[in-house]
Amino acid sequence: MTALDTSGFDRLFQALADPYRRAFVERLSRGPASVSELAEPADVQLPAVLKHLRVLEDSGIVVSDKAGRTRTYRMRPDAFAPVRSWIDQRQSEMAAAFDRLAVLMAETPEEKDH
């Protein structure tokens, strides 16, 4: 991921930075829920819940459907793929650095204690 294509990635992290939005994500990871179901345990007014859900939707974490007067939100199956990919890349780079260190240490003779 280059600096030029990180805007969606940044939005995803910004969306998850808020504890209310993380709570909604945790709830939605167990299955779809209506706005009222999501708002019930939250300690915020319905307009604030809707704003939080809009941020989650704009970041690509959730999608919504409307049937009649009920709007239902659900997780996108691939919502965290960019984060997973970024973490996997960092782990690969760190593993390669440790492998290089191990080779260097194996090639360096040990000093004897006197």
TrEMBL record:
InterPro entries for this protein: ArsR-like_HTH (IPR011991), HTH_ArsR_DNA-bd_dom (IPR001845), WH-like_DNA-bd_sf (IPR036388), WH_DNA-bd_sf (IPR036390)
Pfam families: HTH_20
Molecular function terms, GO-annotated: DNA-binding transcription factor activity
Ranges for domain HTH arsR-type: 1-95
Name assigned to this protein: Transcriptional regulator
Organism: Pleomorphomonas diazotrophica
